[in-house]
Amino acid sequence: MEPIKPVHKSIAQAFGEQVHTGAVVFDARSPGEFALGHIPGSINLPLLDDEQRHEVGICYKTKGRQSAIDLGFEMAGPHFLDKIQEARRFATEGKAMVYCARGGLRSEIITWLLNKGGISSIQLTGGYKAWRNYCLTQFEMPRSWFVVTGMTGVGKTSVLKALQQAGEAVLDLEHIAGHKGSAFGGLGLPEQSRQEQFENHLALALAEIPADARCWMEDESRFIGKLRIPDALFQAKLNGSRIAAERSFDTRIERVLGEYGGLPKEDLRDKTIQLTKRLGHDQVKLALEHLDVHDMQQWVSILLKYYDKMYEHGITTNKDSLIGHVWADGLSDEEIAHQMIQIAKHTHVG
User: Fold this and answer.
1) DSSP per-residue letters across 122-145
2) CA distances from 123 to 107, 167, 235 (A)
3) Number of H helices, E strands in the chain
4) Which CATH homologous superfamily contains domain 9-135?
5) Catalytic residue among 59, 100, 135, 215
């Protein structure tokens, strides 16, 4: 379960003056709807489970609204006390806000129920649909974007962390996506979230960044693992000012090995095979031969040459947006971040 927070800034922005300070947010939709996507930090308190929701939907289509409402009460009524007791476990300050799909009957009933059970509750107007509309506004909001770019193995993610520690506004796409971006980026990590929930967390992170701040993100492809960067945000990345970190080929090999070299060989083998269409059969065969005899440097060398070609193509395509370079060998992440900040400060972003 995600951390439970009092109302965070983004919910206040999405729903305006309706919000209750210190309130817990309950999602009255079914567990299946909640699993696809929900307001980050909210807790599922479903009026109906997935099967019951399906039955009520059929009843609505065949017998009309009132019959569906009656059936919903028949199904949910015996569990009202359970719902109140479950809500009390989380709403320790006695305050709650409730939403459903569009701010309709389900959240209205749960709000009424919690108020009767002694929890001061309000229904969020517009429901989850209003939240999703708010997410779209976050992706489309104009910002001053700077993009940390560079070939595989230069340490872009660690530079982003150093930028954040230096007080810069950072959107860590890989952290939010739960994936390191490359074909090997999911190894050793939990299953990624659903696309919709990824977008919800992106919007939440963006909402925490002041509109006039200098913002940083990593140079990612459109997909991070199975998750797609929203179009407006991806276009903002393409339009951003790029600063490249550069390291020697040998240094990059060592850094990649430090990150992936200790993972199970069978996992590395499977991921290498998945690159056959991109690398070609001969190169994959050679890479696997090196991997099988634990010649890890040669294995990484073959893969890096492939990723380097992709990077060089991207740099050629976006050469006008490249505003500076930092030679990173011999520098700490903090020193690299400092140099990038200086480059950014001397760049006018219109």
Assistant:
1) EEPTTHHHHHHHHHHHHHHS--EE
2) 6, 37, 35
3) 17, 11
4) Rhodanese-like domain (3.40.250.10)
5) 100
pLDDT, tens digit, 9 for 90 and up, residues 101-127: 999 999 999 999 999 999 999 999 999
Query: What is the model's pTM?
Result: 0.88
Residue 258 makes CB contacts below 8 A (sequence gap 6+) with: none
In the three-class reduction of DSSP (H, G, I as helix; E, B as strand; rest coil), residue 152 is classed as: coil
Report the CATH number of the 142-345 domain: 3.40.50
Beta bridge partners of 326: 245
Nearest to 291 by CA among 263, 311, 310: 263
For residue 23, give the 3-state DSSP assignment: coil
Exposed/middle/buried for 142, CB within 10 Å: 0-12, 13-18, 19+? exposed
- For the chain, give every domain's residue range: 9-135, 142-345
- 100 is annotated as an active-site residue: yes
What residues have CB less than 8 Å from 306, skipping those under 6 apart? 275, 278, 279, 283
